[in-house]
Queue: 4 jobs
Job 1
Amino acid sequence: MKSHQVKFDQSSEAVQVPTGTLLSEAARLAGIEITQPCGGQGRCGRCAVQVQSGAVRRRSALRLSRDDIEAGFALACQSVVEGDLQVYVPPQEKIERRLTTDLTALEVRVPEGYSYERDQTIRRVRLSLSPPSMEDQTDDLSRLLSGLRQQTPAWRQEGFKNISVPLNLLRKLGDVLRMSDWQVTAIVSLQQASAQEVEIERLIDVLPGHVPDDEPLWGLAIDVGTTTVTAWLVDLVSGQVKAQVSEYNGQIARGEDVISRIVYASKEGGGQELRGMVLDTIHALIDTACKRVMGLMGTEEGFNRCQIVKATIAGNSTMIHLLLGIPAATIRLAPFVTGANHIPLLTAQEIDLNIHPEALVDCLPGVASYVGADITAGVLSSGMDDTTRVTLFMDVGTNGEIVLGSREWLVTCACSAGPAFEGAGVQHGMRATRGAIEEVWINASTSEPTCRVIGGGKPRGLCGSGLISLLAEMFMTGIVDKRGNLNLHLPTERVRDGEHGLEYVVAWAAETETGQDIAITHVDIDNLLRAKGAIYAGYSVLSDSVGVPMELIEQMLIGGSFGKYINVEKAVQIGLLPDLPWERFQFLGNTSVRGAYHALLSQESRQRIREIASRMTYIELSADNSFYEAFMSALFLPHTEMSRFPSVEAALNEITPV
């Protein structure tokens, strides 16, 4: 097969690739980062590069205008090499603002009644062993295990019975025993296996000397979110969170939603690449957390990631599969089955997690393909499983996961909302970074907008909260009708027929950082209506399936990082949230990592999460005809049945009296 040279402007050397190679693959070989938010499906248009010379064949030119194509622009994920090329890669979008709540460790309370001696599964056991002699030639390991078996700690009714010992520990055991004059501290784990009610005894490490009781023992709670990864570094002795860190999931560059990532993972080497990306993200967070703890301790030495001896991980089913390298293709294919909902206990070295190699890693249990451990952990931390009040718990994101119930019953479903509320699939959409419009107000008389921009300054695009706000304002001021159609009869130049169809201009070119108009198109509005319609249909079908009318929901809990940016009034006006009294809404932030934190501290909490997963009744919406009907009815602002949104109807009547 003939090969060609591809030279990228960001690289000093060209790469040699065969005919038919995707431009995105050529860029990867050249070490050039090109973001592919749709997972390389050619849907988002954000991997566009400019071919300055040479021949490519475009499989798709979606979101490229005629002028773009004439200027040489091509989608890297949809264009193949057919000759020597010179390629310009535009600056890639940088993430400059965290999506998670900017909390401090002081704001996380240790669970009431937490007792290290009673609740923790990782323990230190101080041992004073007799050295060997000519009369006692017992081997080192047997001597250590005998010492442990003779111990009956306060937190056990009996001594250790069958402790497993890793090979790496055996290799250093003799030196540690002799160096410490046979005075050592053993770190031991006693934990129930995830799938069966059996205890696992495991020796994690042997430290020289007797470690004081109040010396910190380190654990890690991790939430692997589709958008954001969060980690809490915890002192298991006191239960205190000593550092909280978060960062965008590196996998975003290969897909902004779970389906896009599953598609990318199915490509040759894609799964391994995605696994490496999320591990890199986690490791960077651990390093940052360790540095923060060293700052608190007032030392630059004496603490590192290898002192972390336990980790709990929450995340949706796809994220857990991709982290562990488990094929995820079956999650998106009927009948939508995971590789595993209950992952056995693992060690850090098994999954390449760069903490203590023998640290036990507990991936919390999920329920089904699209209801994962982030939701079971969230239900625990929200207290939903222990309340008598009828509660609707929801995580608004690319995959809208919903739980309805109380301590008596729990029913759950998931709806594919898509990444529109994350700014993807929208012409001028972007993540919640500097320059994103996050709030919009429109003058009903003039149709003129006023915007609030993250970081101040000139805007670059619209993030999710800005899109919700904008759509609500456009509807309430008559710029769009119930179907999302733009009103061309208004006395304003902002509503116009643009290159991609009808649109409303939010900011003129002279007002923006990019020098281009920022507008929302009819196609964008349609994508937003589909996203909000899927979420509304999800929880309305769920409530109908158990015979609980929406008005009987006593509290609505919204988890996830994005949730805290939602303006309740605006979200109700577009039909994203139900029309309930505002005092019933609670925004809880990242409930997933909080649930992982509780499971990290307490075996009882870990058991509760397992029980929550087993108690949940899962409804597969794709197999339910009523979901399609509810979805079609929700593709209006706020809904085809205005009686479901009396406050919106009343507000509209005040603006335009009937």
Note: The CA atoms of residues 642 and 649 lie 7 Å apart.
Job 2
Amino acid sequence: MAKNDKVLIDGIVDERITLKIPSEKRDEVFEYFAFEQILKDYDLSVDEIKNGTVDGQDDGGIDGFYILVNGHYLSDLENFKWPKSGAILELWIITCKHHDTFKQAPLDNLVASMVELLDFTIEGTNLNGDYNEKVIRFRENLRYAYRKVSPRLTNFYINFAYASRGNTLELGNSVVSRSQHICHVANDAFGNCKTKFTFLGSTQLVELQRKVPNFSLELPFIESLSSNQKYILLVNLREYFNFIQDTGKLRRYLFDSNVRDFMGLNRVNEDIRDTLSNMHSPDFWWLNNGVTILATGAVIIGKSIKIEDIQIVNGLQTSESIFRHFESGGVDINNRSVLVKVLVSNDERVRDTIIRATNNQTAVELASLHATDKIQRDIEDVLKLNDWYYERRTNFYKNQGISQDKIVSPLYLASGYVSMILKAADQASRLKSRFMRSEESYGKVFSESADLNVWPQIASILKSTDSFLESVRPSQQFKNEQFLKGNRQYLSFLTVSRLLGKFTYSVRDLINLDISKYTMTELQTTWNLIQSLHIDENVKPKTLKKNLFGVCSLGAIEWNIKGIERIIGEKKLDLKDTRLRNFKESKLSMEEFAMKVNEILPEQPWKPRIHLHVMEILKCTQAEYFDAVKFLIHEGLRYRQKDGVVYDTDGNVISFDNERVDSETLLLKPYDSENPN
């Protein structure tokens, strides 16, 4: 290792501390930097990298825990797009230490943890080691994912990484031996896995940091047809494979604008695979719609085209199938071709129109197409005028080198809108991207009738709030995101209401708020009030929600804030617009009726037709029953259940019906007419 590599790493860390990426704590900044570089080929978003952090007390020697299926980060089990076949499961276990050497002690800890964490015959409640909540949850996510994809698993990779500021040329024998032991433990647990242990010191981290996404590439072709900056090309399959890969990894950043994830080997992709494998099939482009590339510039030089600012906006299924074919050792003795369209435009609206059109030809979730909506482009434009960068397309600005402290995501801003405009801080703290699947809920937040100037104000308020919370948050790294998400909305909403003197402030009031008055001192004043109610600073949003109205009521008395009735009136706001019945003609309130339903319902998971039993006892309609259950789920008294599987508020599986659900795949068992339950 060149001695100066350590100096370079320290300089990078110093700069990121200044920018608070992700905080001002040196060990946390180094850790996040290491995660970012180690996982660079997966092009994970900022939120995904942070989500995989488990470092803290009782972390079992694990600092980063990342599960990927077909190259996509797994966080929400319930809403993940599971491949129907051809699944590749990858696990990354990362240990990070801001040391200038590689030490044996962290690996000793990791060996002990892996022995039981990778043994799925041991239930979570029977683990001998002490592990924090996130480690346990991620371990259960891995177990679930392994069962889920096991019938269609083609490859299982377990990657261990140890990053420090040390020199990998000076690894001690005991350290190397421990790394080999860890790989043996993994191989003993999974006979079909491929394990690898990587040490990354200052030299390796600097090399990774210098590796930047290349959006300007050259693509050789066989034949071409061009007119007015539009090109139709026939490209050799092997040449296209080389175009979309780098050192054996798919260049995922080239697909930022493609709104569909790889679906695994569904019927269409199985056909593509079979065509690639069948050397007697017709030329590939005869049977395939090909690939569409958006660019800001392109020029043909001989039998090659130089393309600038590449975005593959259609053909992800085709591209990943071609990549998998050659990456796994496949050949193409007939030198077949794929059809590639290259469209050059610098007009963002034209580019977004092409993205929507090319991705609307097959079934795509409506939520995935919202990135190209006019309101999303408008928000991006108004934020840029105020020195904020809106990632309506994941990692679009990150891959351009824009500092993370200037980047905001749609979900981040949406949560601020729900809290400060819709006055529902409790729901804002639990908001997930799935809300965009509902046109009603999406329209409530991203309304074209709202003044665009509210978005820069929300961005500034939330970022300032995060800066304050970073200064008071617990020292344990693994609680960072939970702490921020659980307190951000309550603190910002109450502070804004105090500065404006009312809970009933309007959008115009918020826009006109002098942001220079939203200071650390003001936030500290609000925080002191929240703390005075003895709310645990690490409390989960679901628990803090029960105190929201008490906090606001106390704030109304303490600071003479008007309009507390607005908070009470909106506490059951439903973003999905599936309004709970108000039971005006009933003697019971919704809450009273729901409590009666709750008393009758057994422990989850429920059996089929349980609603008929409850309806018979309470003499209520089916609609009334389901409205009551929605209320119970909304209040955290019950959990969401689907096909015999029960999910918590984060989408993690917490239980399932053993009689109805296969314990290996967590899918419903075949129907038995003699035992219909």
Note: Residues 361-368, 536-546, 569-587, 672-677 have pLDDT under 50 and may be disordered.
Job 3
Amino acid sequence: MELESRPGHSSHPGSRALISLMKNINGVLSPFAMACVCAGGLCLMSCWGNGNIEPVPAPFTTSAVTTYHNDNARTGQNLNEVTLTPAKVHSLKFGLLFVIPADGRVEAQPLYLPNLTIAGQGTHNVLFIATENASVYGIDADTGNGLWQVSTLGVGESLADDPACLGLIGTTSTPVIDPKAGPHGTIYVVTMSKDASGNQHQRLHALDVTTGAEEFGGPKDIQAQYPGTGDNSSGGNVIFDPGQQLERPGLLLLNGVVYTSWGSHCDIRPYTGWLIGYDQNTLAQVTVLNFAPNGSGGSLWMSGAGPAADAIGNIYALDANGAFDTALDAQGFPSGGDFGNAFLKISTTNKQLAVADYFEMMDQATENSKDLDLGSGGALLLPDLTDNAGHTRHLAVGAGKDGMIYVVDRDSMGKFNPNANNIYQEVQGALAGKVFSTPAYFNNTVYFGAVGDTIKAFPISKAQLSSTPVSQTPTALPYPGATPSISANGASNAILWAAENGNLAVLHAYDAGNLANELYNSNWAPDGRDHFGTGVSFFTPTIINGKVYVGTTAGVGVFGLTQP
């Protein structure tokens, strides 16, 4: 593996630009300018007459990225990006600025808060990085300088055992931030660990965003039970086993509750699917729901996507393969409460979880037996749409391993019929591979990146998703496909960003209005200038304030404009 920071020699266009700015009237570089060029600072550094290198204060922004895929609808869009435009994002003006090193894999999406005052260090735009080594970092997002770092392992603890040899043994899920919680703002993080006696733990941490210090009496051990006789049950209750369960989905913060979602380590039984909520100010457990209490499986993992949530407090998730009770009660719900392979709507009335509605495909038994679970993808909530009859539709979209796009009416999802799919819309054959990602939304268009497929743009008209894409990228991406992210300035200058996995990760940028137009590719720059490391499983780019942040196996690559 090789990680490269921005070259510091004057052959780079950005270096040439700095040199030209720093020549004196005789065309000769001053000594302090030469020091700046040799330091490779480019636009990230300013040069003072004494030869010292100082970070350039970056422009502050009111924008923030505090949760997975930018918002609780999981749209992946940042509509306040004014710096990065299609005209500027190309290899002559845009590229790798630096790589932020970290002590482990960065599976979680990096998060961002602007204008944070750090005691004794001034005001900074701050990037938050969580690693599989159970560390959390606060980093100056514009210079890469460290502000604070903490380990979320307990005293005398070590990293947890790796039952599936995947390395997912520290912090895997994307944290969530409440900028108003605690005295300065709080980042909520889940970490797996092992104590000196060999006991496995899953814990919820609440950390001060300016110091990393634990808040609200944390951390909180994740413990739970739920009525049932399924996997790992005892005395009429299914028992949460922290060594068997994996918190893969991003955290969800909704109406004062932090929701954690649970799957397995590579389907190693016993396990079931859990959704567990904690009061964000006390870390007290307030609610628990199990999705296969009288069976097995039915986990939430969604390739790292956080559960989505609507404005009135309902949660939406795609459940993985597992037990489903085809015997239905009078309301059309599984009689045993087992929802394997379902598109779920979960109510949070009085902060208590319950499945309020669901959709299950008619051939669920076949899909379960072939491991074609819906739960490999994440759910996306669409904005209110008007159909052909003038009715307002509240829709959600998702896809999984069968490559079908499922569009559900959130007001009536369809439940289960063994003879037909009772669903608002089903798009067959539009995707060429399985989906291990979350789609993005922008300007009445949904973007999917399936495995071995091009990224495709599906327009929406009269509350119907087109069955054919209006544009697609020139090349296909290997496993796991891509979770696209969108940057735009309102409705203009939209760019679709995607990270390609591999021993040498690749950052792609496309014109969101015409995906056939690739604007930038980190392999295009000469001499490997923009290579930034090895890819991780399901990474999601973060685009904010003129920069793009992409996790790797050993840190975060930071991209931006290389010329002033």
Note: The radius of gyration is 24 Å.
Job 4
Amino acid sequence: MNLLIVESPAKAKTIEKYLGSDYKVLASFGHVRDLPPKELAIDVDADFEPKYEIPAKARKVIADIKKLEKSAKILYLATDLDREGEAISWHVLKALKLKENDPKVKRITFSEITKSALEKAVANPRSIDMNLVDAQQARRILDRLVGYKLSPLLWKKVKSGLSAGRVQSVAVRLIAEREREILAFKPIEYWVLGAVLNKPADEKKFSAYLKKYDNKDITKLGINVAKQAEEIAENLKAAKYSILSIEKKDSVRRPPSPFTTSTLQMEASRKLGFSAKQTMSLAQRLYEAGHITYMRTDSTNFSVDAVKAIRETIKKEYGDKYLPASQNVFTTKTKRAQEAHEGIRPSHFENKQASDDSREQRLYELIWKRSVASQMKDALFETCIALIEAKAKVNSLLEARGEILRFDGFMKLYMESRDDETEEEKNALPLLEKGELLNFNSLIKDQKFTEPPKRYSEATLVKKLESLGIGRPSTYAPTLSTIQDRGYVTYLDKRFSPTEIGLIVNDLLVEHFPVVIDYQFTAKMEDELDEVAAGERKWVPVIREFYEPFIKNIKEKDKSLVKDEIMKPEMLDEKCPECGEPLMIRHGRFGKFIACCGYPKCKYSRPLEDKGGEVANDKGKLESVEKAEAQKCEKCGGKMLLKEGRFGQFLACENYPKCKNTKTILKSSGMKCPECDKGEVVEKRTKRGKIFWGCSRYPECKYASWNDPTKPNTESGESTESKEMESEEGERKIN
């Protein structure tokens, strides 16, 4: 018997099906060793030596692997083919107390879970690549040092519960800077002028826009006064129009490159409305079920066999005219891309149906179409540019542009980023000839204003981070989740906005820790980690070069920064009802609140926010906060007071701690409970603050779900990635 180790049970099940009875496949459920969460666990004085431990959740896993490993002929470590996967294999080895050069131990990798790929991997094993392991360790240690040294300073100088990180803090900085650009933006008025024209013998209308007026070029913002616009408009109405010149030229649109991790996240966001986290979760499932290749990659290459399969698919589905003479080749824009990997593609192109889950299927179809389209012929266009003379009291020159699709090529199957309108549909030009007279139909006279830059969406933020060289394929989705979970940004209408605390923390880091969130420095650090992975650098000097000035700065700022200067309280024109001192708005552990200036002598305080929301009474019926607060505590008869907690507002008895009665303020979905049909489905939180939805009549009715019933295609119920499978199993139990 041979023993093969992967990360997730879903992946194990798929692989065991292909390899047969000679193989036993077990899941490690992600990392089997990690840095303990309650201490730094890095010996800075001993070359940053990490102190790993086997978490409680992994002890049984290791015990099960040990039992089978003793009788196994070969131990195959088949974790993912990236740095994280390499590190998991190494940690499994260390947890089993085996050596890297043990002849019994074989490291295998594959980019797709198919019978042929697995057989090829087993036939070509290798040893563990310690360069990849070192690069992963270096990133883990670097992030631990930043988080565990900088976060406590934020707790002390700003407020508790905050965190800082190399990539997350840079992402917040981008969002904060964009917000300030928007706030500082001053719109500029300008006018767009032109005419809707047609040929005398053809009713087909087209638009032409002002290019010159009185022999002067008109730029986009060139006409910025209403009076000037009106003068030009009068001339255009009275003008006689004729074709001055026609220019025609052919243009080519190349197929899109195969999906990388980042482009898949961007396109799934634009076309399907999926978050980065949701996309990666769905892609993980498709990969583990054997439907697509590995989804963490920055390569735009396909294997020879894959290209052959795609070309056969194009010929069969679309015919020879869509098949180029040779394969299309793409070059990646990502520095040090792992070209040995493949872009994301289906494992079997003959399969168009991969899953009964509608979201998985939609993502699979997107990957299938993009992969096949990448090897189809170019789309061919004819661009026509007509210069039109407008003779009047003051002469003008207009320009009409149109594009005619001569051959659709790859566009027959796929168009990138919701680009579902071709140019000729927007402004289709008739056949025009030089000297031809034109009829004036109507005037184009639009007052416009320049617009501020748009807030980042998930797609544009990932694109920006990638263009700066910050982060890697595996980091984008967790980064976007983290900055929301920490309360630094909100994501409304599919756009990121910084919160007040996000702006405060960002300003502090920019002023006092510029290196940590410097774009170029963060990108340089990524390059250095890539050099470690390539065996070109040692990881300890990379960490030391960063750590020594960083910790020196931490110690200096711990002495010099003053909390009240950072978190300046806002004075209110209101007196304290208990002592008469002025009231102020302060920042607390759970957000803003109103407090007395006389603290600690006077401890009067109250929540800042209004009393929105509802609470469930004893019968599971929802009632307003005001009504509930007016009632007496049903346990001791005391007054119920509105309080602010870690996870929002709640009602608590005034006699705390003698009486610990509380009531959670709930957000109602407005829907009846599907199980008891008596209570309402309301928003609740776990002890760790994670939102779920349950019946207001709990504990009589124990209905609970991760899915937000108020939102279609919610990601609330999405499982985590395979490296967090233990969480996934926990989430499934609640349903």
Note: The first strand starts at residue 2 and ends at 6.
